[in-house]
Write a structure and sequence with these properties.
Elements (H helix, E strand, L loop, with lengths): L3 E2 L2 H21 L5 E7 L3 H16 L3 E7 L5 H13 L5 E4 L9 H6 L12 H8 L8 H12 L8 E5 L6 H9 L8 E5 L6 H7 L2 E4 L17 E4 L3 E4 L6 E4 L4 H4 L5 E2 L6 H20 L1
Parallel strand pairs: 1-11, 2-3, 2-4, 5-6, 5-7, 7-8, 8-11
Antiparallel strand pairs: 9-10
Helix pairs in contact: 1-10, 2-10, 6-7, 6-10
Length: 291
């Protein structure tokens, strides 16, 4: 069996082209979609993500500004900055890069963002809209997964989707998106997690497995049925003898899936680029709604 690589790089390129007319329409109204990014501390992965996001925004002719703070910033200072950004009309979207230091209540911080500027889709209002089937801002990674299905014309209706991971960032919203009515959703969805007994019994029954566990090469070809599709959201650093001293792998054992799965997203180059594309899309949408 030939295994199709579902490239997020290819899918995101197509999406960026489709955004250009929308950006042009906004520019004609003297509106430049703007994103404020808050980065706390020196987490290397967070710094890489923020740089990638900023680079993409500038390439698209959008405005992006990153506000960097030391690890010891107080919760009060951070909340004060978000309140200021909520009122600043230059910014249509606000993103707080996670994880935050342990002394800061992440939930409190995320909830302080104006839902109309919550381009990450983590505010309870936006998650609530998604839960009742009337999405406003959808979290970028799950939304990116759905766009991969659209790009490759993978229709989920009548399929069994098994999601491994129940976070509010990926797993939980993903389970709602795949089960909503629509041409590229409408699946029967099972949400598994660390407390699921005999988890591989579920992945073996799945037509599509979406992995969002954060466990390097957790799933091998023995854990899925032949011909199923694997969407790998995980991105993990594992030790390597190369110059960097590490390499990036997903939650799936990619090499074992070749010839067994019908399609799989690579890591890197799969869902990561789609997450950034959805952030761009959500920011454009925020500018259209509130410009």
């Amino acid at each position: 069996m030939k295994t199709l690589t579902l490239s997020g790089l290819d899918a995101s390129k197509s999406l960026y082209k489709s955004y250009l007319p929308r950006i042009e329409r906004l520019n004609k109204k003297n509106i430049q979609p703007g994103l404020a990014v808050i980065l706390v501390g020196n987490n290397p992965a967070s710094q890489v993500y923020v740089k990638s996001k900023s680079t993409r925004f500038h390439k698209m002719g959008l405005f992006s500004e990153t506000f960097k703070y030391k690890e010891n910033i107080s919760e009060v200072q951070l909340l004060s900055k978000i309140e200021e950004l909520n009122k600043n009309k230059k910014f249509h979207g606000i993103l707080v890069q996670l994880p935050l230091p342990k002394h800061i209540n992440s939930e409190l911080v995320l909830n302080s963002i104006d839902p109309k500027k919550d381009v990450d889709g983590f505010h309870p209002y936006n998650l609530g809209c998604l839960a009742i089937g009337k999405p406003s801002f959808v979290p970028c990674t799950p939304k990116g997964v759905m766009r991969i299905f659209e790009h490759y014309n993978i229709k989920l209706s009548g399929k069994h989707v098994v999601i491994v991971g129940r976070s509010n960032i990926v797993g939980r919203p993903q389970s709602i998106l795949t089960s909503l009515k629509g041409p590229y959703s409408n699946a029967t969805t099972t949400l598994c997690h660390s407390g699921t007994k005999d988890l591989f019994n579920y992945t073996l029954m799945a037509d599509i497995v979406i992995l969002a566990l954060g466990s390097p090469e957790f799933l091998s070809n023995e854990n899925i049925k032949k011909g199923s599709i694997v969407i790998d959201v995980g991105i993990n650093r594992v030790p390597d003898s190369n110059k960097k001293g590490y390499r990036l792998v997903g939650d799936a054992d990619f090499s074992s899936m070749i010839g067994h799965a019908s399609a799989i997203t690579p890591v890197p180059g799969g869902i990561g680029p789609m997450t950034i594309a959805m952030l761009v899309e959500n920011t454009i949408e925020a500018a259209e709604n509130n410009g």
